[in-house]
Design goal:
The chain is mainly alpha-helical. About 75% of the residues lie in helices and about 0% in strands. A hairpin with a 7-residue loop joins β1 and β2 (about 75).
Length: about 325
């Protein structure tokens, strides 16, 4: 007669091991967190030194009346109350908004058109990309100096061509609309190359299967562009719009050299107005106030745009 072996009884874990498990988990989580902070710390250091600290210093300066020499006088938020009643500030804000509304969409459309044109096997493709991209990497001061020669009312290239065709010359410097038009034309010319390069990268990342399937379904070029290419390029477009708006609110060199904000205040931008107040009028506290408000405008516009895009993606 055989007897079954008794079942093995598992001994309970010691209470010390049960208590150590949460401790080990916390220790592991702390190590992961420490490693993450160690990798983020260089970027956070750069962010703090070159963005956060200057921004805080600018805000602190905006609370003072300062000429850059001698003692400063603390005046609280008086600069802000004066700024919101300043007609020149509101004109500069309007000009900056108009400049952004004109340059950003046109640059994107032309950049996409150029990218579509050279996104195919062709001779000299690399050369064409370089030619279109060169204006973006040239100094804005150099571009503006060349623009003064091209758009000069008396001896400029554009007006010479217009008069040669029997048309009247355009008052590029003496008329506000003409001055703004010259700024927009030059700015668009410099931005096309960058938009082209970014869109070209986006086009090359689109799977060819999508385009081939649309073509097999009988979709023409315009239909493929509208219903396949443009929707797939939406993240690229969002990136270019945000970057273009930020650059538009920071424009300085082309405006300062080409028009100087004139005639009158017809092309005065937020940054050129801040420069004039800070270095010409020696009102550095007031100029800092313009800088702080400009930063807040950029932040609000960017946040609203991102929120709108997220809401659109959620609906889809």
């Amino acid at each position: 007669m055989t007897t079954a072996a008794p079942a093995a009884v598992t001994a309970p874990l010691p209470e010390d091991d049960e208590e150590e498990r949460p401790t080990r988990k916390r220790r592991g989580a702390w190590k992961d967190s420490a490693a993450a902070w160690a990798m983020l710390s260089p970027n956070l250091l750069v962010f703090g030194l070159f963005l956060l600290l200057p921004l805080l210093a600018t805000f602190w300066l905006s609370l003072y009346s300062s000429s850059g020499f001698g003692p400063r006088e603390f005046i609280g938020f008086e600069n802000y109350s004066e700024l919101f009643g300043d007609d020149t500030f509101w004109r500069a804000t309007l000009n900056t908004g108009v400049y952004a509304l004109l340059t950003v969409p046109v640059s994107l459309v032309l950049g996409l058109g150029v990218a579509l044109a050279i996104n195919r096997p062709m001779r000299g493709r690399g050369l064409l990309r370089g030619i279109y991209y060169v204006p973006y990497v040239i100094s804005g001061v150099v571009i503006a100096v060349a623009g003064r020669w091209v758009f000069n009312e008396n001896v400029g290239v554009v007006n010479r061509l217009l008069r040669g065709a029997g048309l009247d010359g355009v008052p590029w410097q003496s008329d506000g609309v003409g001055a703004m038009a010259s700024l927009v034309l030059i700015s668009v010319w410099t931005k096309i190359g960058f938009c082209m390069v970014v869109y070209l990268a986006g086009l090359q990342s689109i799977p060819t299967e999508y385009l081939e399937a649309a073509q097999m379904d009988g979709a023409g070029r315009w239909t493929r562009l509208r219903h396949v290419i443009v929707p797939l390029l939406k993240p690229t477009t969002v990136f270019l719009v945000v970057l273009g708006v930020i650059e538009s609110f920071q424009v300085f060199d082309i405006v300062y050299v080409l028009t100087g904000g004139g005639p009158g205040n017809a092309t005065e931008m937020l940054v050129t107005y801040a420069y004039a107040e800070g270095f010409d009028a020696r009102r550095q506290g007031y100029a800092a106030t313009i800088g702080v408000v400009t930063y807040l405008l950029i932040a609000v516009l960017t946040a609203l745009w991102w929120r709108r895009q997220k809401a659109t993606e959620a609906d889809q």
